[in-house]
Amino acid sequence: MSGFIDLDHAATTPLDPAVRAAMLEWLDDTGYGNPASDHALGRRARAAVEAARAEVAALIGASSEEIIWTSGATEANNLAIKGALEFRGAERAHLITSRIEHKSVVDTCRYLETRGVRVSWLDPDPGGRIDTARVIAALRPETVLVSLMWVNNETGTINPVAELAPLLRERGVLLHVDAVQAAGKLAIDLAALPIDLLSLSAHKFYGPKGIGALFVRKRPRARLAPQLHGGGHEQGMRSGTLATHQIVGMGVAARLAAARRAGDAERLAALCARLERQLTSLPGVLRNGDAAHAAPHILNLSFAGIDGESLRARLPMLAVSSGSACSSATREPSYVLRALGRDDRLAGASLRFSPGRATRETDIDAAAQQVRAAVGLLRELAPGDA
Questions:
Q1: Annotated catalytic, 326?
Q2: Rounded CA gap, 198 and 213, in Å?
Q3: Could you count the other beta carbons within 10 Å of the beta carbon of residue 231?
Q4: What is the mean pLDDT of residues 349-359?
Q5: Other beta carbons within 10 Å of 304
Q6: Is residue 245 predicted with pLDDT exceeding 70?
Q7: How far apart are CA 120 and CA 353, in angstroms?
């Protein structure tokens, strides 16, 4: 689309050309073998799957045997949380999470509450972080699992998981981390950091949709009850025929993300800072999230005094988000921003900007101009509210 500017890479990223090229090989008449089959076609596919497993493991400082393939982060989160609780007896368990997790965590925890699990829902501080001391204070003798995202998908705020992980390990409590927005943006070394379970999604770092992974620590072993039963694939934790082409794509995307991480992070942070300077020069523009603990690729701003739906309607050539893509169907103000203390109107008049590898400074400047013009016009139509 000529003139269209994509600043919604936190929702999804385009497929890297190298990833696409690698995937195509496994869609032809020599690459369609079942990786579980014990013949030449199957063994060739299995070798490709294991090579990709090693590439994903390398991105996060894990070993290959600790990577379990899933259909995406939603399944990985479900497997981690339900699997951990069910293995240990859900009817007697206690779980800690926060009110600003991704819907795939929030709704999983709500489901477990209907099954007798007791859940402690932690509130964020005004900057959107979950304080370590608050997590520790919520622990009970029966606490099985803490589930927190590394980077909030709406505000970009980084949670102190590196500080929290060793404290939970000392107390024998499992830690699950949704790292969907952290992988490829922040340095992750699970060889040094005692996280037990960690979720990934390929399409957030220029890989294909429909494929993700769950890191499951081997030593000390994090045991899970499987959620899909069948052929005992993936060490018995996730049955189902593996999609070789998607797995290969995730492997290549992980390798590229590891090689580019530092450079990409520096450039994305500079682009977000450039955009923030231009938009916060307007009156009544508030940043959502802790600027001192922010991921490089997400900027969330609220625009006081205007209607959010009207603002988004006046930005037809700009891809931005009013919140998580997985929550957009509700058309309600972001529950994340409301948890940070924004009222419904201000939460509704918020935009999440997330540039990507192809974003240029000229794109940022053009986007800022479009937003400034839309905000100015809407405030002229409803003066005195900003």
A1: yes
A2: 8
A3: 11
A4: 98
A5: 16
A6: yes
A7: 31
Question: Is the pTM for the entire model greater than 0.85?
Answer: yes
List Cβ neighbours of 52 (8 Å cut-off, separation of 6 or more): 247, 248, 250, 251, 252, 254
Alpha carbons within 13 A on the beta-carbon side of 190: 28
Q: Token pair for residue 17?
A: 């050309």
| CB of 246 closer than 8 Å to CB of 210 | yes
Q: Which residues pair with 70 in a beta bridge?
A: 212
**284-321 tens-digit pLDDT:** 999 999 999 999 999 999 999 999 999 999 999 999 99
Neighbours of 40 (CB within 10 A): 10
Instruction: Determine which one of 136, 326, 339, 366 is catalytic.
Output: 326
CA dihedral 264, 267, 269, 272 (to 10 degrees): -120
Which residues face 212 on adjacent strands? 70, 201
Residues 6+ apart with CB under 8 A from 372: 278, 279, 282
| One-letter amino acid of 132 | T
- Residue 6: its H or E element: strand 5-6
Task: Report, as an integer, the average pLDDT of 110-139.
Answer: 97
Domains of the chain and CATH, by start: 5-12+261-381 (3.90.1150.10), 17-256 (3.40.640.10)
Q: What are phi and psi of 180, to 5 degrees?
A: -60, -45
Residue showing tokens 């990934």: 200
Q: What share of the chain is helix, strand, coil (3-state, %, to 5)?
A: 45, 15, 40
Q: What percent of the chain has pLDDT over 70?
A: 96
Packing angle, helices 73-88 and 103-114, rounded to 10: 30
286, two tokens: 């508030």
Find, among 145, 134, 157, the residue nearest to 105 by Cα: 145
Q: Alpha-carbon distance 207 to 41, whole Å?
A: 24
Cα gap 211→203, rounded to integer Å: 8
Strand order in 350-353's β-sheet?
285-287, 299-303, 350-353
